[in-house]
Design brief:
This protein is mostly helical and about 170 residues long. About 55% of the residues lie in helices and about 10% in strands. It has a single domain (about 5-150), classed as P-loop containing nucleotide triphosphate hydrolases (Rossmann fold), CATH 3.40.50.300. It contains nine helices and four strands.
Length: about 170
């Protein structure tokens, strides 16, 4: 979900030589030379979702120690969750709609598809639509209960996966 802390979580690993970090939105912006909100505004959400799926699949040289942060909608379109699960280990960072709303307001988060007027309804609707895709992830981390320990949990998942598949 937007505002859950995916970008923050991946930033915790950026200086570790053993783990390669890729932010899918950053990859899209680099290759398209526009920000995600600009792409959505100029080309529309359908174009963005297709380009997102194509960019995701171009990440075909992933290793056991590659960590990819995907946008909150990525798993929900173009069979991306199936591709992600076949290509590696998926981790869903879970937070309740109330927690997400708190993050939005506390950190003044702006997302291309959100409307500040009805933010609580927007988050609730998005959450209920996307949850069926998120629940297909291999692992779920409840960020509300583990906010101080997310890095260690993700690291343990990566280390365990590397040991089992290395």
């Amino acid at each position: 979900m937007p505002g859950i802390g995916k970008s923050y979580a991946i930033s915790q690993f950026e200086n570790q030589s053993k783990i390669e970090c890729i932010d899918l939105d950053t990859s899209i912006e680099s290759s398209y030379h526009l920000t995600v909100p600009q792409i959505i505004h100029d080309k529309g959400i359908e174009f963005f979702r297709l380009y997102e799926a194509i960019t995701l699949r171009k990440l075909n040289k992933l290793t056991n120690t590659t960590l990819v942060a995907c946008g909150g909608g990525t798993p929900c379109f173009h069979d991306n969750i199936s591709w992600i699960n076949r290509s590696g280990i998926s981790i869903y960072l879970h937070g309740s709609p109330e927690y997400l709303l708190q993050n939005y307001t506390q950190h003044q988060i702006k997302r291309p598809l959100s409307n500040d007027k009805d933010l609580d309804q927007y988050i609730s609707k998005l959450y209920h639509y996307r949850i069926e895709y998120y629940q297909q992830a291999h692992f779920t981390i409840d960020v509300e209960k583990n906010s101080d320990n997310i890095k260690n949990i993700i690291n343990n998942i990566i280390v365990d996966n590397s040991a089992n598949n290395g």
